[in-house]
Amino acid sequence: MIGTRNASKRSKGIFLGLALVLGSAASEAENIDLVGLNVGGAAFSGNVIPGKYKTNYFFPAPGYLSKWRDKGIKTIRFPIMWERLQHELNGELDEDYAQLIEQTLQQAADNDMRVILDIHNYARYRKQIIGTDAVPISAYEDLLERIAKRWKDQDGLYAYDIMNEPHGADEYWPAAAQAGIDAIRKHDTKRTLFIEGNFWSSSFLWPKFNDPLLQLKDPSDKLIFSAHLYLDKHSSGQYKEPLEDDFDTMLGVKRVKPFIDWLIKHDKQGQIGEFGIPADEPRLLEAMDNLLAYLQDHCVPMTYWAAGSAWGKYKLSIEPTKDGKNRPQWEVLSKYINKGDCSRIGPNG
Description:
With 349 residues, the protein is α/β, with parallel strands linked by helices. It has helices spanning 9-22, 64-69, 82-85, 95-110, 137-151, 173-185, 206-209, 251-266, 282-297, 328-333; strands spanning 35-39, 75-80, 114-119, 124-125, 128-129, 157-161, 192-196, 223-228, 270-274, 302-307.
């Protein structure tokens, strides 16, 4: 977010472990998981570094993920903060924070779920852009090499989202992304890599800013491009202004279409890593429904922003209310869980 988405029983038994370890888009015997959730908390309070666990930042409590598994969720995108994991550039990983990440990965594995581990740093370390003298690309490469080396054997780890929403980094991000790919592949040649784009990974503006990412090379050929979109006026996800009287409920489709068309043109695979809406506007719910139908038609997965028990009154939260009622966003999202006849991540042209 700016500033701050059927196998048979027999096939499941055969292929689930393989899919988790290999991070493959799909096996021939099972459909793609098109709906997942972001689980926020570990990257909260970005201005408080390193911060205090359970005060400034949060991890899923034991048993938390099982409630989403019971609702059909299999994939979570899990944002973490570079500065908390590595207090100094090129330094050792912080053991306490790393162990909390491991506990989350293990909880996912215990629930037959899979984690996209997201470096939620906007192409920055301590507010300095990767590629500048303050944060050399080699330091970012060091981080990802340490992450892959440590967690390459974790069953709950499905993929690496190598950087959340790069922005103001047009000059540096393609080279940094390639360095991140190379760093991970030194230790993990099997898992999927999600690659976000410049200008906050905007789906609508993706073609304008991200053609240089077409030059990225992955020896394992497992790159998935990941875009974000929101439906407020400035696409920020903050939803500060009321909807216009003539709000178009096809807006989500219109904002994602440039990204989908770009993927089709260049024969690439894609995902929507973040999308979320407030619960109190029926037109937004209709627009969300239209967007999900469009993504399903193209076999493009989405992880909703956001779940997580520490959001409080955050208006995009999909956590059930205190009395256990589902949010309106969930009622729309759940229509698309375990649906779609997709044997690989799209788009389909």
